[in-house]
Amino acid sequence: MNFVKISFLLIATLFVVSCSNLKAPEYRGVGDVKVSKIINDSITIKAGLKFNNPNRVGGKMSLIDLHAVVNDIDLGKLKNQEVKVPSRKDFSVPLEIKLSYGQLFDSKKGLLGSILSSIISNQIDVKLDGKATFKKMLVKKEYPIHFSEKVKILK
Predict the structure, then answer these.
(1) What whole-number distance in Å separates Cα of residue 31 and Cα of residue 95?
(2) Is 155 helix (H, G, I), strand (E, B) or coil?
(3) 23-152: which CATH topology?
(4) Contact assessment for residue 41 and residue 67, using Cβ atoms and an 8 Å cutoff
């Protein structure tokens, strides 16, 4: 009976020690952008955020209150997502952005005008702010997400 207690304590200690120094997943870029729905008053765009997990353990990652800004135009909060994270591999987090036609066609600061000016300048400024939560069984770590990236447009 003593052997069982000591073994359980040793395994629990190893688990807590191995998961206590979890590193934040590394951001690798945006990919797989496509229009998924066009409804009467809005357009839904799906994209994938690419990450790499440097940790020896996998788990689940949730993006919470992720806020998107493209060329200084606030697109609002994105839908919360939870994905499985493999150990020491690349993975993608799907995102869904719903835009109203007003955001696209407003002549003063609309996204469409901004994108047209970006084509001329050959780059788009993308900012993402929020937080990510990495979970593995009972261990939960929260990481801030602050990405600002100038994406070059290929002709």
Answers:
(1) 10
(2) coil
(3) Immunoglobulin-like (2.60.40)
(4) no
